[in-house]
């Protein structure tokens, strides 16, 4: 089913809003401790507990408006629910901090599996946005696979060796900026392998 057209600003708000709210709420509650049912919870856990249902609601709203959620969005939502839920249930922030690692290992692994089969799964996701020749898709897929796996390693290094504050800033701004920079640096591939539009004879 074709994706319904919605206001781009509303779509961006639904996609990025939960992350921004998580960041602001963390800055507000990071120094606080809450006692619920006789158990102490740090602010990070409380913010995580709010982020999970917020992601579910925003994803459902996005699906309702557009009639479509990409496989990447669905996988991300599932991992947010699983790892966020584990962090809240076990009162252990490590599970939620592992989530980006699992997401990027999953995406990198899927792209790698496709490459082993001689296919670019990235093409199936982005072909309508970036019409490239097959050779271009293979190059871009290999690079993105390595990039995702590199982000997974970087996330592990940061959450295991740095403070929670550092990890939250990295998660909110660093990962987003890294993905933006990655695609900005692929201009040579886009130019060299762009498909020429068919012209009427």
Automatic annotation (TrEMBL):
A GO term from the CC aspect: plasma membrane
Pfam families per record: IspA (PF04279)
Residues spanning the membrane: 12-29, 41-62, 74-90, 102-122, 143-161, 167-185
Keyword Cell membrane tagged: yes
Cellular localisation: Cell inner membrane
Membrane topology recorded in Swiss-Prot or TrEMBL: Multi-pass membrane protein
Source organism superkingdom: Bacteria
Keyword annotations of the record: Cell inner membrane, Cell membrane, Membrane, Transmembrane, Transmembrane helix
Function in brief: Plays a role in cell envelope biogenesis, maintenance of cell envelope integrity and membrane homeostasis.
Stated family: Belongs to the YciB family.
Protein name as annotated: Inner membrane-spanning protein YciB
Organism: Shimia abyssi
Source organism phylogeny: Bacteria, Pseudomonadati, Pseudomonadota, Alphaproteobacteria, Rhodobacterales
Gene that encodes the chain: yciB
